[in-house]
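Consider the following assembly input.
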Amino acid sequence: MYPELARRNLERAKTRSILAVVGIIIGVMAVASIGIFGNSMQKSVLERFEDIADTIIVNPKQSKGFTEIEEDDIELIRKIENTEYVVPAKDEKEIVSFKDRKTYSTIYGISEDDLEKLYEVYEGGIKLKGSVVVGYSLAEDLDLRVGNRITIAGSEFRIAGILEEEGTSFAVNPDNAVFLSVDDFDKLFDKDYSMVVVKAESLDYIDSIASSIDSIVNKREEKVEVMKLESILETIEDALSTMNNFLIAIAAVSLLVAGVSILNIMLMSTVERTKEIGVMRAIGAYRETILKIFLMEALILGVVGSVAGAVLSIAGGFAIVSMMGLTTKYILDISTALYIAEGFAVGVFTAVASGLYPAWKASKLEPIEALRYE
Amino acid sequence: MEKTKKEGISMIELTDVHKIYKTEFYEVHALNGVTMKIREGEFVAIMGPSGSGKSTLLNMIGCLDKPTTGEVIINGVETSRLSDRQLTELRRDSIGFIFQQYNLIPTLTVLENVELPMIFRGLSERKRRAMELLKLVGIGELRDRKPNEISGGQQQRVAIARALANDPPILLCDEPTGNLDTKSGRDVMKIISRLNEEKSVTVVLVTHDPALSDYTDRVVRIRDGRVE
Ligand SMILES: Nc1ncnc2c1ncn2[C@@H]1O[C@H](COP(=O)(O)OP(=O)(O)OP(=O)(O)O)[C@@H](O)[C@H]1O
Ligand SMILES: [Mg+2]
């Protein structure tokens, strides 16, 4: 009966109730859609990096004065178990020119077999016997084709292949690079290996491989730095979820506004219904009963608004995600449900919390004073 | 009949009840030491000039308000000792109120208004009893109307049915016919006096209308917060 009474009281002040519900809908939608958007963003960013998570990069410890990795150490790393491959590379920055165009790019010295392990070819083939392979953006910038000849530090090289565009990558970003055989590299520059890329057989071995490298190579002196890409991913994940929470918090401000409007309309309604409250108290309603009826009204507003807001937030999430140019495939993911549930819970909580004070005030009215109220 | 009433046990007892309303600028002594006894099954009218303290007195009896000093005993219970919750239960179970302005709940139907005190009490079988009461006051056919869809006289009958919902031994009426035409007023008074006679409900009636004293056993006159 009390829920029914509450419902009719809300219906009596229809416009007001609708406005309160709209406030909650907007608030819940804002919170949940932004949650959905953040979730989609997190998922699609992580997906992009997923296939590199099982990679470890070994660099010289520059803070200790090391600039190169010794070949003996590379041999030791190769002996570690559960690695899929170990790829050492040398690198240098140099100007690359083609016809009258020039650009500053990274030159890598790497074996042909290793390069094949790391990247896919877009055009031509991966051949490094006297020829070079270039990255996608470099090819675009200098307008390069397979067969063109580029000049690096005074020597000319024929382009055997152009790599697929990689986008983001942590180890070696090939897009703006030129790959030479180690022999060719040594003819141009006098440098030792400056990095080793180690891929684990699976994610499970990442930690054991990393600690093996550390204990074997850094036994006497801290010569190299071991970087797990997985841990970078975790950092990114953390940063993204912090940002997401921040956005949700901003969206929650709109719920705060909805809460204030519920507080306001419920205070109005306690004043308007003062006499009625007095009558109910006179004929045997406890203070708690009055409290219950008012809280029920707030709860109904909250639940109705939050259900509608939760449903609409799927559309809202879809709109934001596609507006931001992200893939929409994660919107119907189960993880989305968490954010919808969060929006729903926050919506209901806001409504009930806002109803607390008016309900308490209504329940505190003295029967005789309430009855006398006109 | 007269005799048993006079010798019956006391249902309502007031001893030296004072009520002082304090406002910022002045004090109003609405009741100045009222002592009175009303026996079970009595029908008492309280009369007096406007502002003499009739409503205040009735509110004390109805446990809607507390005396500044003095004691109100209802059905043997000293009400000054009761908590707010216990007072609520006393009103719910032992007192039926009939107000001048009917005071029905506008969102509820006629039937639901009559059910309400039973809901507060947690009774089942409410609908049937509410229907019986509506028939008793002669408006069974209006059960599904809302208060604003029926006449004042009909609303007051609903209020009477509501007051009787929990079968209280006491009925308190503050100018129940004040807003009604002569005919409706007479009908309402007939219902109330029948309840008093047939079910020996104790009735306290505040009124300005001397004609109503025909229905009552006794008239208590109040002036300036004192029983004359
Ligand atoms: N809440 C209040 N605050 C201050 N004074 C009050 C209050 N209620 C009643 N009074 C005063 O107490 C006195 C008695 O009031 P009460 O309502 O009991 O009179 P009444 O006999 O019922 O009058 P009426 O016949 O006009 O209904 C009046 O002077 C009134 O102004
Ligand atoms: Mg009065």
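Chain A touches chain B through 22 residues (CB under 8 Å). Ask yourself how this observation constrains the way the partners meet.
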